[in-house]
Specification:
This protein is of the alpha+beta class and 500 residues long. Helix 8 packs antiparallel against helix 10, helix 9 crosses helix 11 and helix 14 runs antiparallel to helix 15. The radius of gyration is 24 Å and the shape is globular. The two termini are 44 Å apart.
């Protein structure tokens, strides 16, 4: 009889425990690239930033309409155009249990400003003159000159707030994370998966709704689609146009699309011959047909763009106002001849077999350049090597996907100023520097608009990089997924409100 009672009690306990296990809400996200480190002050790859979206916070962030809203700073004051006072949320804790204070904010921004960090976000905040902790929850930042894009720069993952204690312990945070975000890193199996678990102490009470988020690395777009279709994946960012068309025909799937602000580019190392000659770069620009590239590489799911993302309509000039942006093969050949290449020339194009690495784009460009006698040899490299070549500026030319912004200073200064943190083209031009410096100091829209109009025309003419288009942000998911919202910069922040 006792044996029967024990068995019955055991079965009852199992019955009580099993529903608890079954109720764990796990979202599995399919991605085509592995993260290249997790230190927000160092990384540049989108694959890393999509994890950082869920692990760290900034002082301010973007909402789904790309407006600046509170994050770690619940409010701020701007008593004059060079002074910002941020009021921090109280009781926010890093994942190591230490409370976030003004000291961590000042430490993080100083770390970004330190040239030894080689932080891509440094150009966003170089105008910082001084920082002061008024109290543990209040930071006063004084700028050396007005910077119209200051809050926009602080909204970047590259300006995330990190734990001073963690950096002192680990040196850098590439393989670990100690953020304040809604999820905590539990396990990372390189080139396979990354598992994040809910931060039960997250400052936005009641969030996140999910208990666990798993990123699965699946390089092939068709396999990502198959995973969502079969239910082994809940959501995936799909960039291959033909795959997206298949998904749109499936009544059991949801396809979310939004015009993005990230920019596909084709740029040159202008210190290498013959790319140090403006005429060669102009000729190549005149051979590029953006609509043809979008049709072939994106199945029409992109928006042609100049130096400022086309979606930033208050700033971006129409392409017909930009010199060398309308295809003209005869003029292109004439420019090559003037530059000393009447019979054409050869160049190498670095790319990678992934969406961000732009192999399909490079293939279309290769065919377009043949029409003006330019032989483009594709250097198709593995993703890690691609990033290494990018960091070392080791390329003749390179197809990229660059993180854009609706604020022109934030994107163009870091990309093309002679001191820009991600000026991988090694482009230095005093006229461009002058306009970039002026644009970030002016505070009225009408004055800034004139500067950035002139700058866009100048950049199209000097052509250190050819701006191609802005791809759509596309996510494919099962109908059981609720609450997910897209942000034009590709951020996965709204996983915090996603339910399954």
């Amino acid at each position: 009889m006792k044996h029967v009672l024990r068995v019955t009690l055991l079965l009852l306990l199992i019955g009580l425990v099993m529903p608890l296990v079954a109720q764990e809400k796990t979202l599995t996200i399919g991605v085509d690239q592995e993260a290249i480190g997790l230190d927000p002050h160092i990384v540049t790859a989108f694959s890393s930033h999509r994890r950082i979206d869920l692990l760290y916070n900034k002082l301010v962030r973007h909402d789904e309409d790309l407006k600046i809203v509170p994050d770690l700073a619940e409010s701020w004051e701007i008593p004059n155009n060079t002074t910002y006072i941020f009021n921090l949320r109280k009781g926010v804790k890093f994942h190591n249990g230490i409370e976030l204070t003004a000291d961590d904010v000042i430490f993080s921004l100083n770390r970004i400003l330190d040239p030894k960090t080689a932080a891509p976000g440094r150009s966003y905040i170089t105008s910082i003159k001084s920082m002061e902790a008024i109290s543990p929850y209040q930071v006063k930042i004084t700028l050396s000159a007005p910077l119209a894009s200051f809050l926009e720069g602080l909204s970047s993952n590259n300006c995330a707030i990190v734990s001073k204690a963690a950096v002192e312990q680990y040196g850098n945070l590439q393989k670990v994370e100690v953020g304040t975000g809604p999820f905590i890193l539990k396990e990372w199996i390189p080139d396979n998966s990354m598992t994040l678990v809910k931060n039960s102490n997250y400052f936005d009470k009641g969030l996140p709704y999910l208990d666990k988020v798993i990123f699965r690395v699946i390089p092939e777009q068709a396999s990502l689609f198959a995973g969502v279709k079969s239910g082994t994946l809940d959501i995936a960012q799909i960039n291959d146009g033909s795959t997206v068309l298949l998904a749109k025909r499936d009544p059991n799937l949801i396809v979310m699309q939004k015009p993005g602000i990230n920019l596909r580019t084709f740029g040159f190392n202008v210190t290498r011959k013959p790319f140090d000659d403006e005429r060669v770069r102009q000729a190549i620009s005149l051979a590029i047909d953006r609509n043809e590239i979008i049709a072939a590489a994106e199945f029409g799911m992109a928006q042609p763009s100049g130096p400022i993302p086309a979606g930033a309509t208050q700033w971006a000039l129409p392409l017909n106002r930009l010199p060398f942006y309308t295809p003209d093969l005869a003029k292109a050949k004439s420019l090559l001849s003037q530059a000393g290449f009447p019979n054409g020339l050869s160049l190498k194009i670095v790319c990678s077999n992934s969406f961000e690495g732009g192999l399909s784009v490079a293939q279309v460009i290769q065919n377009q350049l043949k029409k003006i006698g330019v032989n483009g040899e594709l250097e198709v490299v593995e993703w890690g090597i691609y990033i290494d070549r990018w960091n070392k500026k080791d390329f003749d030319s390179m197809v990229e996907l660059r993180g854009g912004s609706g604020e022109p200073d934030r994107f163009l200064y870091r990309t093309l100023h002679s001191t820009g943190g991600v000026n991988n083209f090694l482009f230095k031009d005093s006229e461009v520097d002058k306009l970039l410096d002026k644009g970030r100091e002016l505070t009225t829209y009408s004055e800034r608009k004139k500067v950035y109009d002139d700058l866009q025309i100048m950049l199209a003419e000097k052509a250190p990089v050819i701006f191609l288009y802005c791809p759509y942000e596309t996510h494919i998911m099962n109908k059981a997924i609720k609450g997910f919202r897209q942000i034009g910069d590709g951020s996965l922040y709204y996983i915090i409100e996603t339910q399954k």
